[in-house]
Amino acid sequence: MLEKIQDRFTESIQVQIAAAELLPHKLSESAQRMQECLLRGNKIIVCGHGRSYANAEMLVSHLLHKYELARPSFAAVLLQFDGVLASVAAHHNELAQLYRKQLQAVAKEGDLFVSFSPIGNEEAVLNAIHFAKNEGLDIIAFTSILNDHTNGLLEDQDIEIAMPSTNEARIVEGHLFCVNLLCELVDHLLFS
Length: 192
Prior knowledge:
Elements: H1 2-22, H2 24-39, E1 44-48, H3 52-64, E2 76-78, H4 83-91, H5 98-106, E3 112-116, H6 123-134, E4 138-144, H7 148-151, E5 159-163, H8 168-191
Parallel strand pairs: 1-2, 1-3, 3-4, 4-5
Helix pairs in contact: 1-8, 2-8, 3-8, 5-6
């Protein structure tokens, strides 16, 4: 049991070390895009699927309330996947369109769309990314090296934060670290 625990710590640390080499420029650019979006008076719209829904909720919570710095709330919207909304979508076999429909209802020109897709084949997220592309929204996509499906939708101006792992748990952990860091960077950019 102790060996298994040690192995998981080692695996997590190795993913973080690899991410530290690959992602700093992408995270810096993402923080700047978020800052620009908010300064324009636009909003950050976020979705995540499966385990990543919690990371999407965390990002929106940090933006709406605070991360570490006491400050005004930032405009952020979480695309929902719970309660009656998800139940009705499932009943009508429309789960794959759930985020796209919400995005269509709330997105305006100049908004920023942030998606969490750790495995890269989450159809509801892919449909929302496709819609965001058609609407000309800026996109920040949290993915992994399992990103073949997402990769086909993103363009050069989009930002992909791809965790260097194939283990979903390590990917989600890495994304959460990046969420916290992004919120710290945005606070720093806007209030330092």
